[in-house]
Amino acid sequence: MMFQRFFAKRPAALAGQALYTPLIEQARRPDFYLAGKVPDTTDGRFELYTLHLALLVRRLRGERGFIAEVRQALFDTFLDGLDAGLREMGVGDLSVPKKMRKMGSAIYGRFKSYDAALAAEGQDELQAVLSRTLYAGVEAAPLGEMAIYVRATDTALAATPEAALFDRPLPWPTPAFVKVNG
Question: What angle do CA 90, 72, 152 make, to 5 degrees?
């Protein structure tokens, strides 16, 4: 009981973990891998998870105080998930830190690339980033539709008030390549 306060999770850490769950749920939608042609591989999943993380972190960037702590907690939770995934795949304890550094560097690179592409006019730069990351080596990838989805997601998250970010579900748009029954 005495040590409980030392080990209790802070509210920002809990909020970051709460944002991680819908991020992963969205990135695991079968539509992305089937109709969206994202490779259902370790690399493909890493890229799709990182894309969604980049969009959510982009929404939280610039906020101060509690939300800044939530942003860091979300990122830390994401990295913890990657670490656990590597270990589950059988990567040795001595190799995990090196692989995590490499992946961390890749994530920051993706953040910069997506930020620049989303700041640019039109879809060309965004499609180019998607082509070399999410769709590396994929022929006939639906780049235009995915770029529309990424921009729509960025817009929807930007329009979401801070308090509503913690409501479920997050405002993930439906990708254009998903055929809605109607």
Answer: 95
pLDDT digits (tens, 9 = 90+) for 67-117: 889 999 999 888 888 777 777 777 777 777 787 788 888 899 999 999 999
Domain membership of residue 78 (yes or no) is: yes
**By residue range, what is the domain housing residue 143?**
11-166
The answer for residues whose C-beta is within 8 angstroms of residue 82's C-beta and 6 or more apart is: 46, 100, 103
pLDDT at 99: 79
Domain membership flag for residue 176: no
The total of other beta-carbon atoms located within 10 Å of residue 42's CB is 11
181 falls within a domain: no
Report if pTM > 0.70.
Answer: yes
What does the alpha-carbon distance between residue 140 and residue 162 come to, in Å, rounded to a whole number? Answer: 38
> Phi-psi bin for 37: left (phi > 0), alpha (psi -120 to 50), beta?
left
Tokens of 77: 């939770």
